[in-house]
Amino acid sequence: MTEDEKDKATAAAVAGVGASVGTAGGATVGVLELAARGLATGFSAGLVIGIGAAAGAGAAYGLYRLFKKSKS
Question: Are 26 and 57 in contact (CB under 8 A)?
């Protein structure tokens, strides 16, 4: 495995972990808040979870790149 392939695999793993954390956060905070107000539907719950996953993946990937640059 080349260094470029290792970097891509690591970045994908980091983004995957971030997406998992974001999904859990979106599900916990967003959906429970909507449910408490009686506003949760399948679509709105899915939307909140999806946004949380995207935000988590983006944040994790951004932090990975930031720390990778600081080591170089």
Answer: no
Q: How far apart are CA 34 and CA 36, in angstroms?
A: 5
Mean pLDDT of 14-38: 69
pTM: 0.60
- C-alpha 51/C-alpha 37 separation (Å) is 20
Phi, psi torsion values for 37, nearest 5 degrees: -90, -5
Q: Report residue 58: phi and psi, to 5°.
A: -65, -45
Cβ(52)–Cβ(30) below 8 Å: yes
DSSP tag of 26: I
58 vs 42: CA distance, rounded Å: 24
Angle at 50 between CA 46 and CA 56, to 5 degrees: 145
Q: How far apart are CA 20 and CA 34, in angstroms?
A: 20
